Amino acid sequence: MARCSATLPPACHVTPVSELCRGSLAVSSLNHLTIAVSDVTRSLGFYRDLLGCREHARWDEGAYLSAGDLWLCLSRDEPSPARDYTHVAFTVRAPDIDAWRARLVQASVPLWKENRSEGASVYCLDPDGHQLELHVGGLNTRLASLERQPYAGLRMPPRPRAPFEGVLPGQLRLLLVAGSVRRTSVNRAFMHRLADQPVPGVAVERFDAFDRLPCFSPDEVSEPALGHLRHEPELGRWLAAVRGADAVLFACPEYAGGLPGAFKNGLDHLVGSEAFIDKPFVLYNLAPRAHHAQQQLELILSTMSGRPLREAFRTLDVGAQAGSPDASWPDPDTAAAMASSIERIRDACAASGPP
Known about the structure:
The chain is an alpha/beta fold. The chain is built from 9 helices and 14 strands. Strands 9, 10, 11, 12, 13 and 14 form a 6-stranded parallel β-sheet that branches.
C-alpha cells in the first residue's frame, strides 16, 4: 500500500465539516491498519507467533494478517514510530492479562508505559518500536467508568429515550417484536400496523432491529453495571424494552423449518439477563401452514423462564394485506381476533400483578 503526499491548491474550496455532517455520510468501521516495518519476516514472527494474529498472505514487501475482524497489513518501509501517545490497542481477555505480560517479558519485548486508565492493559513495543497496547474492555466499559469518574471537561451526548419512558402508571405496556429483519416482511408490517392502532390504556414499543445486535457469546458479560442503553444502543434498547414490558408479543416467520438466525441471536442475549424471567409472552402466527417455528419459539421462550399466555395466542391468515399501504387493515376478523387477544393479555397481567 503506497504512501501518498498531497497538498490542496490555494484556490481549492474545502467544505466545512459542519456542513458535511448534515448529510448521511459516515464511515462505518476501521477497514484495515497498515504498519510500516523494516523486516517483514521479523515483524511477521512478532505479530503472528507472539501476538497470535492469523496470517493470510505474505510476499517480499509485506504480509496480510488479521486479529479478530481487524485486517492488519505489514508493509516494508522505513518506520518512523510515534513518540507521542499514538498507539494501536488489541483486545485480550481479562483472565489472560497476566499471562500476556509474562509472555512479553519472557520474549524480552520492551514495555513503554504503565497502565493508569480503566481496564487492565499491557503496553509494549513491536520490533520497529511501534507503540502497542493489549487491553481488557471496550468502549462501553470505558464510557461506564467515565460516568463514575468523569474526566475534566467531560461532555457526553444526551441519553436516548428509554423504552416505555413517560408511560402513565396503570397503562398496559406491550412490546411488539417482529422476528424478521426483511424490510418487506409481513410479520414486521403486521407489528408496525398493530402499533399504529391505539388501544385505550395500552402503551406499546416495537423492536425488530435484530440485524443490528452484536453476535452473542456466552464468554461475554451480557449486562455491565451501566447497561447498554447508551453504549450499545440497539442491544440496550432490546434488553430495556423486554425488561420494561408487561408482556412481549412475537410475530416470527419460519425459515427453513426453524427460526431466523438474527432473531434467535437476539433471544440468546436474553439468556444471561433477568429481563425475561417470568415474562408473559404471546405468539402470533401469520402463516397458518407453518407451525415448526411457532412450536420451537414457544419451547425456547418457556425454557428461558418466560410465561406463555396461550389464551391470547392467535393464528391469523393476513396474507400480504398487512404489508400493503393501500389495504384496508385490519379487516374485521383480524381486528376482532386482536382485540380479544389484547383483552386476554390485559386480564392475565392484571391477575398476576406487576412483573
